[in-house]
């Protein structure tokens, strides 16, 4: 394997187009499949996003019937969700590195196949052990599949404008999954029982695999990099302990703070080790010299910090104050998800008109304003102001998500697209984890649910506005 990003010529998609020059400034031959093939590539990548997001949402709906079937308490059932989250966090950087080293299509297909097989294992589980094991395997599959999908977007859509449009559709699938999952999962559980929620993703995952094998060109870029065991272990400890701290935040504060301290220490050691590796590092630290990449990381962390805190606390408050029941709360979140889907599809065109920096930082700021509106609505007998805040959050997510992903992976050479996509997903995960932990702690420390929601949303909204302001000069400089 040479030092260039390579596309295997015997894949069907690769035969539909030929390389035309090198990517400017990178020394990398971009992949140029024909337009018809790119549509199939995008379909495969979107199916992967739908698989991961629908699965996560519908599994939460099935917690109670699964607990009844297995005769276990809520604490035991929490690990059905947490096993997925923990393994996903631990494996995320590994997934991005493997995609760059050994082939992005290969890792994408492996992740989709593992995710699909894990879902079958969960659906067939007769005890808690295989159920939790299946969820852990699904987390590993997602950690391989999601970074690889973004890396493939970077390699196939080398033109920034075309890539922005593709990313708008890709990110819109996150909102689409969030919109359809509650109704789909609820119907499946009512008609066919809790096992059906795991089998729902099997045909979608199989379709993603079939399309990827048919249309996605293979590409890789080892460039002297290698699998570094010390870096892998330190990154796994840092990300895994960060996830564990969020998992235990509401149950065992001592363990949560201890895990967070270990995460910070492991992260510092990871940076020190990587600094000695130079260009062969698992995460080449020079990637952070790119202002746009740093800005995208900051804005993404702020975006998920507030957004996941909102999604965690608002439905809980509605139910605690008897404003809405569980079903009504789920339905009340759907307009936000639909706004996310509708706005996402236009971000490519909007980026051409007003610029990526306005979409990304403006979108995060709009989410922050939405959280402030939700905070102001706390204690009101009407949900109208909260709905206005949710709509603002959905619009902001739609504006920012795709362009932030595009800014991150577009700021680095195509050879580093796998690790760049893993890092932007690490920023998403870290922001979400800290958002739930910090805003949840503020909520829990307040006198009541109303005051807790108000304080948490004000802190979350201000944090998002601060991240948008901090990211603005860096992303704007990359125009």
From TrEMBL:
Membrane topology label: Multi-pass membrane protein
Record key words, sorted: Membrane, Transmembrane, Transmembrane helix, Transport
Segments passing through the bilayer: 39-63, 83-102, 109-131, 137-157, 169-191, 197-217, 229-248, 254-271, 292-314, 326-346, 358-378, 384-410, 422-443, 455-475
Keyword Kinase: no
Keyword match Membrane: yes
Location of region: Disordered: 1-29
Domain Major facilitator superfamily (MFS) profile: 41-479
Localisation per UniProt entry: Membrane
Pfam family, one: MFS_1
Annotated InterPro entries: MFS, MFS_dom, Sugar_transporter_CS
Cited CDD domains: MFS_MMR_MDR_like
The protein's name in its UniProt record: MFS transporter
């Amino acid at each position: 394997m040479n030092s260039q990003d390579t596309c295997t010529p015997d894949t069907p998609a690769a035969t539909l187009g030929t390389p035309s020059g090198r990517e400017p400034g990178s020394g990398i031959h971009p992949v140029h499949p024909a337009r018809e093939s790119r549509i199939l590539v995008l379909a495969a990548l979107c199916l992967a996003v739908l698989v991961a997001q629908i699965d996560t949402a519908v599994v939460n709906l099935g917690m109670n019937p699964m607990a009844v079937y297995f005769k276990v308490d809520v604490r035991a059932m929490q690990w059905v969700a947490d096993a997925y989250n923990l393994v996903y966090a631990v494996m995320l950087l590994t997934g991005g590195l493997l995609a760059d080293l050994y082939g992005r299509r290969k890792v994408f297909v492996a992740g989709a196949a593992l995710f699909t097989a894990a879902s079958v294992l969960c659906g067939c589980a007769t005890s808690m052990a295989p159920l939790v094991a299946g969820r852990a395997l699904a987390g590993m599959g997602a950690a391989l599949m999601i970074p690889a999908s973004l890396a493939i977007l970077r390699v196939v859509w080398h033109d920034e404008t075309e890539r922005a449009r593709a990313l708008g559709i890709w990110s819109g699938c996150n909102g689409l999954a969030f919109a359809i999952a509650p109704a789909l999962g609820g119907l499946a559980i009512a008609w066919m029982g809790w096992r059906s929620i795991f089998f729902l993703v099997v045909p979608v995952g199989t379709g993603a695999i079939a399309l990827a094998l048919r249309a996605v060109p293979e590409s890789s870029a080892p460039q002297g990099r290698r699998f570094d065991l010390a870096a892998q272990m330190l990154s796994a400890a840092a990300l895994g302990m960060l996830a564990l701290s969020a998992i235990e935040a509401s149950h065992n504060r001592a363990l949560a703070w201890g895990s967070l301290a270990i995460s910070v220490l492991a992260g510092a050691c990871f940076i020190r080790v990587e600094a000695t590796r130079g260009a062969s590092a698992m995460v080449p630290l020079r990637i952070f010299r790119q202002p746009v990449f740093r800005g995208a990381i900051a804005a993404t962390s702020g975006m998920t910090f507030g957004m996941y805190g909102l999604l965690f606390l608002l439905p809980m408050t509605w139910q605690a104050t008897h404003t809405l029941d569980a079903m009504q709360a789920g339905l009340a979140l759907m307009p936000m998800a639909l706004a996310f889907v509708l706005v996402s599809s236009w971000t490519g065109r909007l980026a051409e008109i007003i610029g990526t920096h306005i979409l990304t930082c403006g979108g995060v700021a709009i989410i922050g304003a939405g959280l402030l509106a939700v905070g102001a609505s706390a204690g009101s007998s009407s949900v109208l102001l909260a709905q206005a805040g949710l709509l603002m959050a959905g619009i902001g997510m739609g504006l920012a998500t795709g362009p932030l992903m595009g800014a991150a992976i577009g700021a680095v050479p195509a050879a580093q697209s796998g690790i760049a996509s893993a890092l932007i997903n690490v920023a998403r995960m870290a922001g979400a984890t800290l958002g739930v932990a910090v805003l949840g702690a503020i909520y829990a420390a307040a006198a009541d649910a109303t005051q807790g929601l108000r304080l948490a949303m004000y802190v979350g909204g201000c944090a998002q506005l601060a991240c948008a302001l901090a990211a603005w000069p860096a992303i704007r400089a990359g125009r």
